[in-house]
Design a protein that fits this description.
This protein is of the alpha+beta class. The protein is about 50% helix and about 15% strand. Helix 1 (about 5-15) packs across helix 3 (about 30-45), helix 2 crosses helix 3 (about 30-45) and helix 5 (about 85-95) crosses helix 7.
Length: about 180
Amino acid sequence: MNSVDVLHALLFVADAPAPVAALAKAADLTEGQVEQALEILEARLEDGGPLQLNRIAGGIHLSTKPEYAPVLARFVQPQKQRLSRSLLETLAVVAYQQPMTMGEIEQVRGVQSDYSVRVLLERRLLREVGRRESPGRPILYGTTEEFLHQFNMNATSDLPKIDPALAAVMPALEMAEAETA
């Protein structure tokens, strides 16, 4: 067994992006050896076949090449779980300002957001990341690895920059944080 084939097999069975350290441990290799083998595997996959190597959500992931999407969609017929406008809005508010409490989310959005947060928690796009050190110790929410995976990002720093016109809501949020501190 060579290291490239071992990594290919590990990535094939992984259900989420695998960190290099985890691949190294499973394959009994150093992280440097894993990186070298991944370069070879990536070149091999680029030369032919339906798979590609992706670096997302802090790990390595095998996926099909985009040109195969129509055929796969006809075969699998996936159930689309589209995010409604309110879910996307809530998710964006948290993604850009995390960690946030429910009160802060509602203040930015201007509407009650408990339903949206609950649905996003169920879909594993948001998670509880702690509690604010303020009266009542409200829950803080942040995005998940699943969020990064779904939106094809390696880190939240990959989020698009905020339009200056949208930045007008930021002072309201900062005032809310000052009042709770």
